[in-house]
Design a protein that fits this description.
CATH topology of the largest domain: Immunoglobulin-like
Radius of gyration: 31 Å
Number of helices: 6
Order of helices and strands: HEEEEEEEEEEEEEEEEEEHHHHEEEEH
Helix content: 10-25%
Number of domains: 3
Strand content: 35-45%
Number of strands: 22
Structural class: alpha+beta
Length: 449
């Protein structure tokens, strides 16, 4: 029986632990690994080792009008402490759109194969993302199938479709792609069925004799389905592809088995999958995406989507989510960390810069949310030589980046400071008459930084 249940659960637990604690965020490469065993014509075992790496786990580098990640994979197979063979591959992963790197659904899929003759193998797997240095490692024990077995392991596939092109060539069988799902996570929004692939092996003297195949599925301690299939093998090696509809299943973890009854001998193969309800978590700081657009403009100036007003709420929320994920990717911060930082700055702006409108929408709020607290603040009052009666002003100076300088003046004396002068910030513009607000005798040396 395929012994990956503990292995899969460990992988899921490890990923969850990294997400919660962040301890391994800089070291642990989030990926999924699974294997299936089939008999070769000479009765040796073919081990298919599948691995899946979510694009969001990788660091992509812009090059030649595209984005590329590079992963080095090393697999060693040993028996009784003796290294039998090893295989090294370098996966060069390219994408056209940087937004693909933020997708919850898109992932890189690859397969390696090995031939086993005996029992007691140990497989050591190691993958390294070259651009980030993050590493995934796992060692697991595996045995060759019994040479007289009548049934292979069960391979879980997210989809099966005709395709004879070079795409996913390693996953093709008889002109169809069997897209393996090493993560064992399926989503009803994207997957209609759980596809199970297996092979039956029948001695020539028993061809044409009926066999009983039982497919069962449980959720916890509750039986969900049980199908009985009468099989009459016509060839010594036959492929079977079974489908489990997902539309009526509740979200959660499912355990299943396929049992083959040959005379009085029963052989079992187990499988499992997790049915997820939601495909991705939407990121936002406001319930209304239109308010979120105003916040996003603080970081992207006026570059709003030209078709924003034509989008429905779901499309707007997806655009907002992609924006914050791009921010996280460009700053090297986690998505939650970037949201927490912006939220803290908004709260500060609302507390100290509010007047007749929320502080985060004010000029001071905009600069504070984008740049954080200034390194130096100088406060003063305009002179009698100014355009108006005396007004309070503030000069903000930053020491990071291009060392920008901002001058704000409280024109209405109601704490609504307006930005009148800026230097070294291409996202802001100065008022051409800024000096008239301060007075012709204003000491411009105060603007040096």
């Amino acid at each position: 029986m395929k012994n990956t249940k503990i292995f899969r659960l460990f992988c899921l637990f490890s990923l969850l632990l990294c997400a919660i604690t962040g301890l391994s965020a800089q070291e642990f490469l989030n990926m999924h690994l699974d294997y299936s065993r089939f008999l070769a014509p000479n009765q040796d075992t073919i081990l298919l080792l599948d691995y899946q790496i979510p694009y969001r786990s990788l660091i992509f580098v812009a090059k030649n009008n595209a984005y590329f990640a590079e992963v080095e994979v090393q697999v060693e197979v040993s028996n009784q402490d003796s290294l039998l063979f090893s295989q090294n591959v370098t996966d060069n992963i390219g994408i056209r759109s940087k937004h693909d790197a933020l997708s919850n659904q898109k992932a890189y899929l690859n397969r390696m194969s090995f031939q086993l003759e005996e029992q007691g193998y140990v497989v050591s797997f190691r993958a390294t993302d070259i651009n980030s240095g993050k590493v995934f490692t796992w060692d697991f024990a595996v045995d060759a199938l019994d040479k007289n077995t009548r049934i292979s392991d069960i391979e879980l596939n997210s989809s099966v479709y005709p395709d004879s092109s070079a795409y996913l060539r390693k996953f093709q069988r008889d002109g169809k792609v069997y897209e393996a799902q090493p993560s064992i996570i399926l989503n009803r929004e994207y997957h209609e069925f759980a596809h199970l692939y297996l092979e039956l092996y029948t001695p020539e003297v028993e061809l044409g004799e009926p066999l009983l195949l039982v497919l069962s599925l449980d959720k916890g301690n509750e039986a969900v389905m049980e199908d009985y299939l009468d099989i009459v093998p016509q060839k010594s090696r036959e492929s079977l592809s079974l489908k489990i509809p997902l539309s009526d299943l509740a979200a959660g973890k499912y355990s299943g088995s396929i049992s083959l009854l040959v005379g009085e001998v029963l052989q079992n193969r187990d499988f499992e999958f997790v049915l997820a309800e939601e495909s991705e978590t939407m990121l936002s700081l406001f319930p209304d995406p239109d308010n979120e657009l105003g916040l996003m403009k603080i970081f992207m100036a006026s570059r709003a989507p030209s078709n924003w007003d034509a989008m429905n709420d779901e499309a707007k929320r997806r655009h907002v989510t992609n924006f914050w994920r791009s921010m996280a990717l460009s700053t090297g911060m986690s998505e939650q960390a970037i949201l927490d930082m912006v939220k803290a700055r908004m709260d500060y702006a609302n507390l100290y810069y509010s007047s007749l409108r929320p502080g985060w929408t004010s000029d001071m709020g905009r600069i504070y949310i984008r740049n954080g607290a200034p390194a130096e603040i100088e406060k003063g009052t305009s002179s009698d030589e100014s355009r108006f009666v005396r007004k309070d002003y503030q000069i903000w100076k930053y020491r990071s980046g291009d060392r920008p300088v901002y001058v704000f003046i409280d024109i209405q004396m109601n704490n609504n400071y307006r930005l009148i002068y800026v230097s070294e910030d291409d996202m802001e513009v100065s008022n051409p008459d800024w000096l008239r607000f301060l007075g012709s005798d204003f000491d411009t040396s105060l603007l040096r930084n």
